[in-house]
Amino acid sequence: MLRLHAGHGAGQRPSRRLRLPRRSRGRAPRLRPAEIARGDLKGYWSISISGNWRMIFRFEDGDVHDVDLVDYH
Prior knowledge:
Distance between the termini: 20 Å
Number of strands: 6
Number of helices: 1
Oligomer: single chain
Shape: globular
Order of helices and strands: EHEEEEE
Structural class: mainly beta
């Protein structure tokens, strides 16, 4: 899980803006397989991020388009 500090980060060193929990440093993130979305999101692919949050996107001519994070509940 990535943790962001509150605020927009102005005046902070880049190393202070984004922190990884100690246990995940140096490890590749666990990725869940993408699924084809259904219902109102037909035509999109979906990847579970955490809890209710999913990243959705669609392919057009081999490129990724319309990337968004959605709370599906």
